[in-house]
From TrEMBL:
This is Pilus assembly protein PilP. It comes from the Bacteria. Residues 1-21 form the signal peptide. InterPro entries: PilP. The keyword Transmembrane helix does not apply. Keywords: Signal. It comes from Pseudomonas laurylsulfatiphila. The keyword Signal applies. Transmembrane segments: none annotated.
Length: 175
């Protein structure tokens, strides 16, 4: 055998022979005997935890504090009119398929033909003029200013008649 082959073999044998030499477990034996002397009752009992009163959240069915307050006073409840009703023969515009709440005003444009509102919603920015419709409740734009768009919706009053409900879409700053 060549010395280059013998060296790894000698190194392996010396490492393996060192594992069995010196069976000195005196520190381990001392620790185990100390544990045995304590006896079985030397384990501390588990701590007693104080119980806290349970809390049940019961405001889930209440109005959100971030939505505007709705008056339910029946004395001020407006009655609908039989003269006001949506036109069933009118051709629907594209933006009438979306909720009016998702639209936000982002600006205005003016030129020789008139003033237009820029509304973001329904997947893009749309240019609308007075008389255009949007929202699912036959919402018609009645006025456009630099700070808001005024819309009048026609909604059922719950008693078989229709009611005109004004809405405003304010200009969203920094958009």
């Amino acid at each position: 055998m060549t010395p280059a082959r013998c060296f790894p073999m000698v190194l392996l044998l010396s490492v393996l022979s060192g594992c069995g030499a010196g069976d000195d477990y005196s520190d381990l034996d001392a620790y185990l005997s100390e544990i045995r002397l304590r006896g079985p009752g030397s384990i501390e009992p588990t701590p007693v935890f104080r119980s806290y009163p349970t809390f049940t959240y019961e405001a889930g069915n209440l109005r959100s504090p971030f939505s505007p307050q709705v008056s339910t006073d029946l004395a001020t409840h407006r009655q609908g009119s039989r003269n006001v009703k949506p036109d069933p023969d009118r051709v629907r515009q594209y933006l009438e398929g979306f909720n009016i709440e998702q639209f936000e005003m982002v600006g205005t444009l003016s030129n020789a033909t008139g003033s237009f509102a820029l509304l973001r919603g329904a997947g893009g920015v749309h240019r609308l003029k007075v008389g255009d419709y949007l929202g699912r409740n036959d919402g018609r734009i009645v006025a456009i200013s630099g700070s808001q768009v005024d819309v009048v919706e026609i909604v059922p009053d719950g008693q078989g008649a229709w009611l005109e409900r004004p809405r405003t879409i304010p200009l969203k700053e920094h958009s």
